[in-house]
Amino acid sequence: MTNFLDIHTTAPDQLRAILDSANAMKGARGDRPKGTPDDDLPLAGRIVALIFEKPSTRTRVSFDVGVRQMGGTSMVLSGAEMQLGHGETIADTARVLSRYVDLIMIRTFGEDILNEMADHASVPVINGLTDNSHPCQIMADVMTFEEHRGPIRGKRVAWMGDGNNVAQSFLHAAASFGFDFTFSGPSQLDPSDALMGAARKAGCDVRVERDPAKAVSDADLIVTDTWVSMGDAESSRQRRHNLLRPYQVNERLIEAAPDDALVMHCLPAHRGEEITDAVLDGPRSVVFDEAENRLHAQKAIMRWCLDL
Ligand code: CP
Ligand code: NVA
């Protein structure tokens, strides 16, 4: 059994194996109705707990559907409705759940919570997003890029806006998958120096470019995300909007990018804020392929965790 806690804590050959498996499962399924099982049912007889301490649409539904398609059973648990939200420790929750279920996925706040869950669970734990990272998202994003453009190795991803959890996972992925990364946002919201340094040490060309048009000028993929993440204080909203407005992904910015640059957003999008309708619904956007691939990537992650 293996945890899937982060991109940088999973060996690059294992990340690649997970994506190969995701592509194979996606291909084998074809376009059969979503509620019908796969030919292969690796999760038959297995139960998966999906814990959410923050809201979710994609993660919640794609994990749940993925478990069902692979023949397993899942239960969605809201942190607030569990004893976890009323004083029970993470460690005790992990020990108890490990007596009932075969796999735990948790979306939570600090990565210390995720790590405590993993330390005390005797079943694999999957990171469904923390304040620091969103590795399942980035697996789907790499899968989506490669479906459209071939190997991501040597390509350049331009991240526009907040150096948040998703941006940080992109930096981890740059090191693991061998792509270059441009961060373009206000200095107050830069990803950590340590993270950028680690990617550079792994051989990636990591640039910080405050001019958004210059940042996208050689990008193969342009990515943005919300200006206020679920872990951010509501009181920071106005300040963040003021800082991030120049980094909006709009048609004018896209004109500065190469013709074949793709656009991604993990969703949910705040249309008219970090990205405009014209770009999100435009020809460069692959956001709904990206959302679909959450399902396929996570099915492969679950199989990998359980060695099935
Ligand atoms: N992208 C993503 O994780 O979406 P949800 O918050 O809806 O799960
Ligand atoms: N950065 C966003 C991602 C949502 C999927 C957040 O953490 O709210």
From TrEMBL:
GO terms for molecular function: amino acid binding; ornithine carbamoyltransferase activity. GO terms for cellular component: cytoplasm. It comes from Jannaschia donghaensis. Coiled coil: none annotated. Keywords: Cytoplasm, Transferase. The keyword Cytoplasm applies. Pfam families: OTCace, OTCace_N. This is Ornithine carbamoyltransferase. Pathway: Amino-acid biosynthesis; L-arginine biosynthesis; L-arginine from L-ornithine and carbamoyl phosphate: step 1/3. It comes from the Bacteria. L-ornithine binds at residues 165, 225, 229-230. It catalyses: carbamoyl phosphate + L-ornithine = L-citrulline + phosphate + H(+). One of its GO terms (biological process) is L-arginine biosynthetic process via ornithine. Its EC number is 2.1.3.3. InterPro entries: Asp/Orn_carbamoyltranf_P-bd, Asp/Orn_carbamoylTrfase, Asp/Orn_carbamoylTrfase_sf, Asp_carbamoyltransf_Asp/Orn-bd, Orn/put_carbamltrans, OTCase_ArgI. It is found in: Cytoplasm. Residues 154-304 form the Aspartate/ornithine carbamoyltransferase Asp/Orn-binding domain. Carbamoyl phosphate binds at residues 56-59, 83, 107, 134-137, 266-267, 294. Reversibly catalyzes the transfer of the carbamoyl group from carbamoyl phosphate (CP) to the N(epsilon) atom of ornithine (ORN) to produce L-citrulline. The keyword Cytoplasm applies. Residues 3-147 form the Aspartate/ornithine carbamoyltransferase carbamoyl-P binding domain.
